[in-house]
Design brief:
Layout (H helix, E strand, L loop, with lengths): L3 H4 L2 E3 H8 L3 H10 L5 E3 L2 E5 H7 L5 H26 L2
Antiparallel strand pairs: 1-3, 2-3
Helix pairs in contact: 2-3
Length: 88
């Protein structure tokens, strides 16, 4: 059996931040708060690419339908308010 831990691709905080579309400092805050698992190497952190993949996991059809329903309901209930805020 292959040991996946030994084959894991490691990312720097800068690389991971680019993947998530956030700043490097925001990535460090996510790590320090425990939202993202990382290992400290010297003064820097490394993140397993697999751990970021869980954040990017695509929604199932069921979850996508739930999100769509929730958005439709918000637009129905608050559409006028959203429109007015958009014009502010």
């Amino acid at each position: 059996m292959k040991d996946n831990a030994m084959n894991a691709k490691l990312l720097t905080t800068r690389q991971a931040a680019q993947m998530l579309g956030v700043s490097r400092m925001q990535m460090v805050r996510y790590i320090q708060s425990g939202k993202i698992v990382a290992v400290k190497v010297g003064r820097s952190y490394v993140i397993k690419e697999h751990d970021l993949d869980r954040i990017f996991r695509p929604l199932s059809d069921r979850d996508r339908a739930k999100v769509g329903h929730a958005v439709d309901r918000v637009v129905k209930d608050y559409g006028e308010t959203i429109r007015l805020l958009g014009n502010a």
